Amino acid sequence: MHPAPSIIVFTTLSGLGFGLMVWLGVAPPTKTPWVMAFFACLAMGLASAGLMSSLLHLGHPERAWKALSQWRSSWLSREGVAAVVTLAVFAAYAGLWVLTGARSPALGALAAALALVTILCTAMIYTQLRTVPRWHDPLTPLVFLAYALAGGALLNGAMDALPWLLAALAGLQAAAWARGDGAFARAGSTAETATGLGAMGRVRLLEPPHTGRNYLLTEMVYKVGRKHARKLRIIAFTLAIALPLILTLAVSVGHALAGLLVLSHLTGTLIARWLFFAEAEHVVGLYYGAHRDSLAG
Q1: How many other β-carbons are positioned within 10 Å of the β-carbon of residue 46?
Q2: How far is CA 218 from CA 3, 177, 213, 223, 276, in A?
């Protein structure tokens, strides 16, 4: 799949913002209202920036509001509705605390639960797609949730829980990469099944379906070299997971180091999310002679 920058930014920042909302709802770092105001603005700013960036991927951003009406059948619509409701409830929770000095644990728990639902809806946009076997896996929503909760814990300063979350994220990400590498072959889709000519033997494309680039090739067919993918995986894993995990276990994390760890985690997450899209093989690529390497590997 084509790794569009707007979608990478959307899934990364919104996940980080809603992940922070989870922690602020159940385990805020301080009881001081104005410090809470800063963290609340940070969480809502990250989530809103991510959601706004997703509009850049639409052909008609001015019609984005219409997507909210399809919540019965569309995970994209459900995500939009969940995000709006979550932001409203979280704003009420934070506003009540800042303006009155009274924290409502029940309202915070509700905001945290809604933030988790929003993250899950984002993940399900991709998990539901049978046409992308690498995404159509139970690990996909778990990885999204793990990145959001680990990033939120890092921003929230929840250092007791952070090592456990990073360790869980390490296992989930490694497993997702390992399972994803063979997902297309396990799905059983080939040029023979795509064309319905398998009974005649191996199908070889005589000519491509189109003489030039088109929407399908631009959006659905993208190749990243295996050597480059391995290097990027190592970099992403090191920056997003290994470095924060090692340092939080080895030294006392102050504000300056915490800021560097947030930047490291964010950079690694952006790289991992780029790979999430770049390595995903859509079955439509079979009509263009793509994915032969995936089937052979």
Answers
A1: 24
A2: 10, 24, 7, 11, 17
At 129-150, the pLDDT tens digits run 888 889 999 999 999 999 999 9
How long, in residues, is the chain? 297
What's the angle, vertex CA 211, arms to CA 205 and CA 214, rounded to 5?
105
Q: What tokens were used for 93?
A: 């929770």
Residue 4 is inside which H or E element, if any?
none
Alpha helices, DSSP H, located in 101-225: 105-127, 139-156, 162-181, 183-187, 191-195, 215-220
For 32, the token pair is 């001081």
Residue 20 CA to chain centroid, in angstroms?
14
| 3-state helix/strand/coil string of 264-290 | HHHHHHHHHHHHHHHCCCCHHHHHHCC
Query: Is-contact 110 89, C-beta < 8 A?
Result: yes
Q: Reduce the DSSP state of residue 102 to 3 states and report it.
A: coil
Q: What pLDDT is stored for residue 87 in this prediction?
A: 96
Q: Give, to the nearest 10 degrees, the angle between helix 162-181 and helix 226-237.
A: 170
- Tell me how far apart the alpha carbons of residues 201 and 12 are, in angstroms, rounded to a whole number: 44
* Number of Cβ atoms within 10 Å of the Cβ of 126: 22
HSE of 267 in the Cβ direction (CA atoms, 13 Å)? 14
Which stretches does DSSP call E strand in 20-141? Answer: none
Confidence of residue 191 (pLDDT cuts 50, 70, 90): low
- End-to-end CA separation in angstroms for the chain: 18
* Short-list 147, 132, 213, 219, CA closest to 180: 132
CA 177 – CA 103 distance, rounded (Å) = 41
